[in-house]
Specification:
17% of the residues lie in helices and 26% in strands. It is of the alpha/beta class.
């Protein structure tokens, strides 16, 4: 199964603004076909079909990313 990591800047949890809600809903939809991890500020929402990781617990700088298609936004961790 392909994995998707989403990293919004807005908090995801009990109190969310528009961007946080959109990322949350998109993660739910993508989780029907992919293994989704949402890395965001906030406490997350329990019992969702995706994995939530608090942004403070993840260091994205330590990863190497490479493209998997011609799309400039499509990449995966090496």
């Amino acid at each position: 199964m392909l994995r998707v990591v989403m990293c919004p800047l807005d908090p995801v949890g009990k109190q969310m603004a528009g961007p946080g809600i959109r990322y949350h809903r998109l993660a739910i939809e993508l989780a029907q076909r992919f293994e989704v991890t949402l890395v965001a500020p906030g406490e997350g929402i329990p019992a969702m079909p995706y994995t939530f990781r608090p942004a403070e617990s993840v260091s994205l700088r330590s990863r190497t990313w490479r493209r998997t298609s011609s799309s400039p936004r499509a990449c995966h961790s090496a």
